[in-house]
Amino acid sequence: FMGMFRSAAASFGGAAAAQESDVRSGYLRMTLEHGTGRMDGDVLAGTFAGRKLSTLARDDLLRLHGECRADPDSLALLEAFMDRTHPEWRAGGHGTAGGPLAAPAAMSQDEARRILGIPEGASEDDIKAAYRRLMGQMHPDKGGSDYLAAKVNQAKDILLKSK
Questions:
Q1: C-beta neighbour count of 159 within 10 angstroms
Q2: CA gap 41, 148 in Å, rounded
């Protein structure tokens, strides 16, 4: 990813934990609300630049999907959004369902903290709590995507190895 998740809250811990995470790719800036699992995004490039994903009709999302094919990160984010908002969209032969996922790109500790929405110096317990909270929303069995779940797993592993 070019930007990865960025905590929208200023503090961490208990009820004051980050309420949103953002992730940025070449075509999209996605926001995940931690409490609700709601995902939406802004289109940054292409035909629909400047529009919110939630305002695009299914056919427009499919057109954007075609535009994003050259950017694997944007494609994975868009597919995660479409899986949540239009779960039937893959039935038309679109998407990469069932295909192999690319190996996650190298990730810095700073990126890992942004993904989990935790500050520098967070404890092992804080890392595990943030991981559980996000995986409750990102896990494919909970309506999330394999790609986003893999990024959350990778972030946790990187941070726990440094402890």
A1: 23
A2: 15
69 with 60: CB under 8 angstroms?
no
* Tokens 């289109």 found at: 43
Tell me which DSSP letter residue 98 carries: T
Say what the alpha-carbon torsion angle 153, 147, 31, 13 is, to the nearest 10 degrees.
-10
pLDDT in tens, 6-21: 443 333 334 334 567 7
Q: Read off the pTM.
A: 0.61
What's the token pair of residue 52? 């919110």
Rounded Cα distance between 129 and 147, Å, is: 20
Structure tokens at 62: 């499919």
- The residue type of 140 is P
